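[agent] plan:
  1. take the single chain provided in the ticket
  2. run structure prediction with default settings
  3. attach structure tokens to the ticket
  4. add a short note for the reviewer (M.T.)
[agent] executing step 1
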Amino acid sequence: MALHLSQDPEADALLSDNPFALLVGMVLDQQVPLEWAFASPKELERRLGAPLDAGRIARMDPQDLAAAFSAKPALHRYPGSMAARVHELAALVTDEYRGRAEGVWADAPSGAELFKRVKQLPGFGDQKAKIFVALLGKQLGVQPTGWEAVSAPFSDPGSFRSVADITDTDTLGKVRAFKQELKAAHKAAAPSAQAAKGAQAAKGAQTAKGAQTAKRTKAAETKVTSAPRAAARSAGRTKAAPAR
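[agent] step 2 finished; step 3 output follows
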């Protein structure tokens, strides 16, 4: 199935035909518009002047790769750190999968194993790993037993949560609208969470202050009640002293 993640025909053709390019796009899909992230593998290929290949990139001088990422216009908002991550990705694919990115998912015996493999890739945390497993299952037919469970809720049929659901410009708009709604909901919830945190902190401070006050009061009471006893003991010692 042809992918339509960047909305650029040439870039999407590369993503569809080159599994390593697809992994690179997923790595770059962070803190930039997703079209930018998924168009960047094609632009990187142009800048390198050779097919995008894991083994070739793994053998590159990291500084040369960083220069390709940083040339204007930069391939990412953070070109240096992303170049390093892509270099690390290429090295892992080369070492663990003989340079074949599709080896990550081609023979995965279960959804749990597939998720484990994807999560081991540089730049793939829990959420990104779930999204990528959902993308593989929904659009590329990679559906080992249990893939839906390990990638939920992004595997939900009929949802528009992530790149796993983008198949054209219409679905891209729906995914973007979902993300904006989610962001707005988090923003609206932030003041309440901050207020609750402040109230909890104030309560803790008040409790600590009360405990300190109680401690000082107890110390003062102890001092007061012990004074007569101390005086009595002193008088007793004076009375019992032998005459000189």
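[agent] step 4 note for reviewer: The chain is about 70% helix and 0% strand.
[agent] ticket updated
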